[in-house]
Amino acid sequence: MPRKSTLSKGLAVAFAVLAVSAIGGMVSMMIVFKIQTSNLTMTERPTEPTTTLAPPPVMRLPRSLIPERYEILVHPHFYSRIVEEVNVTTPNQTLFFNGSSTVYFRCHQPTKYIFLHSFELSVSPLLVKDHDENGQLKVTSYQHHDDESDFLEIELEENLKTDGNYSLSLYFEGEISEYLQAMYVSRYTETNFDSPTSARRLFPCFDEPDMKAVFQLTVIHRVGTFALSNTLQQSKQINTDWKYTKFFSTPKMSSYLLAFTISEFLAMDSPKSRVNIKTYARPEAIAARHTQYAAGITAKILEFYEGHFELQYGFQHLGQVALPDLEPLAMENWGLITYQEGALLYEEGVSSLLHKEVITTIIAHELAHQWFGNQVTMKWWNEVWLNEGFATYMSYLAVNHAEPSFQIKLIMDDLHAAFEEDALLTSHPLSAPPNDVQTTGEILGMFNAISYSKGAMVLRMLANYVGEKAFDDGIRARNGKSQYKVSNIMEYWTTQMGYPVITINTTSGAIYQKHFLYNSSAVSRYGLTWLIPITFTTNISGLNNVWLDKKGPGNEFISKKGEWILANVNATGYYRVNYNLENWERLLWQLETNPSVKKYVHVFSTIFYHEKERSVVMGSLVDILWKRNIQDNLYFFPRRLQKSQRRANSDVFSMFRYICLSQLCTDEAFFCLLFSIHTNLRSVIYCQAVAAGGKKEWEFAWEKFQSSTDTSEKDQLRKALSCTKQTWLLNRYLSYTLDPDKIRLMDATSTINLIAQNAAGQALAWNFIRLPHFCVFNHINLCLQLIRFKDNTEMNGAYRATLQAIEQTQVNIQWVKENHDTVLEWFERETAHLE
Ligand SMILES: [Zn+2]
Fold first, then answer.
1. Domains, the chain, with CATH or none
2. How close is the Cα of 438 to the center of ligand 1, in Å?
3. How far is ligand 1, taken at its centre, from the CA of residue 376, in Å?
4. Assessment of whether the complete model's pTM goes beyond 0.85
5. Residue 132 class from Cβ within 10 Å (0-12 exposed, 13-18 middle, 19+ buried)?
């Protein structure tokens, strides 16, 4: 799922703002998976001693009781509409919910205590039944732990017996969140509830991913609304003001996958397929057919996965809901996937191609989770890369099937996201020891580019090594060929942080590997080496494969006839490659005389951070790219652009055009005015218009933003508003993030990040988030991170992000020091004739 942290590379960027954007990036990742991790705050088990000399505490529920089935009744008392009438007393809105639940469980070890999770719920009275002897057990006491564990501890008069079948029934009451957590109210006239997970905030439960159980849910909601959940409606009953919707039992699943919504949304059906797919959204979005693209592509992707995995999706139905407010971009709840509107709604002629790419990618990722994550789930959050890496890798295959032109950018984005984060000393292995991932901060810290992007890249390398067919067979049968060898190789890549750079000398044939770090003066503390499957090709031979371990291969890499050698073909390996200068020159010559997208991909994936050869190679490559792509296009750009708009909308060229235009518009606003605004280019042009203008232009854009009901257009305008160079307007914009009527809760943090990315807004944003009022309003998540950030003795997600920001800044400074002269020289040479 959607994640991506962006750290500015400019030397001028001060640490403070890097820290902000790192926290922001982390917060955005955190948001994406808040649902899975929210409040998994495990502290020490209460019965164990807490001295500094004790071994690291185990902060997990005891395994003495294992849940099997829940029966839950939830009743939110919220009014979806309050109509004011003359002479009639209007009811007060209420954010209260209550309900009852019974959990059936089995005892695996005798115990007098029942531990489960319950967060900010009042719980009473308790009934514990023995189903083998048809008796009742006396509860002597119960208490909520007053710490981060969220434990509800219930003490019984006598022991529960091994293999005994019991149940616990209770009533609960809680408050609906205004901050998009657990069950919350979306600020939209069509009131909407969503409780994607944070199950312990809704009802007391065993809220850990491997404590799978069957859930049977009944929701009581106001007449005039309707409820959706993971399964279809089994029965409904109406009682004057209230409707009781009972859902079928779910399959055995993790509590974080439970979801329900209450809304007045309408649905669009997907084209006929084996599974009945419905896409739900605001009635006006359905009427305008903004759900049409998602409805079509979902059917296509689901069918692809069923064929690919040779395993049917678990239900006969699939609901997907476009929510006006949702803090993750999307959440893979089994059978009821929830999305932010922007991640699902697409408007032909208004939304950009990039937006379409985002929608396709997110849908492909969430659908992959219906197998990887929902059917097969990681045991604990230290292995979250298994969920996320597999879903990300599988989404490449699905995107290639549904929208082939999007795939290459998608893979390259992930490769570089992983390369960037994993080249820091502050990175971590894919798979961490469970004891290292216990606190909320440690769990949140695992939801990053390593788990998503590196996870996917390592799987891609493995699939390339064993062959895609064998890889798929291995997934299907969970018993791939040469299993031993595979797990042996994988260990190098999953239990060690970082990745290697391979250096090849084509004159002597020497080849060696080294832990790659951005900071070339840093010393890798662990002396890491990898077992590396290397693919390579030359201009006179086809594809070759060799292994590189500590000893290295034979003489494969000697260039006997002056041929070039290119390793890591199609960038399928998770490593960088460096060569001797002669080979670089041959490769660059090849690139210049016979360019192809694939070869660019290679060179891009390896080139940017090499050591001695870096300056020369960088200079030459910039030279080639400049000549090929930018300079050639500059004079004819508007004409070419107009021409290219007529071409098919869906190719890499459109992306390239977008990038070129953002460069050109920055310097030459003139070019931007020469053609009508194509949807793919709108965001760049809006941004430049606001940046070039003053109060009048900004207010015009603000007015448009407020009045627009189109998700795409609104998003482009929200970004553009952060582009102004007027600090007082940026200050005004920052203050709007405190008012959910102006900037929606889910957009508040990213709006501050956008402002922080504007050079004129960096200091403002940093000062803004440190103001006392900041934590009072709607920035709860960011605020929590800042509090932890201040108390940085704790090794939590914010702390790791801070360390990464510091390291990244040092690397940026070093990079500029080393490359400043080369780049400057190049610019002076290239611009000498322009006077
Ligand atoms: Zn995911």
1. 667-834 (1.25.50.20)
2. 20
3. 13
4. no
5. exposed
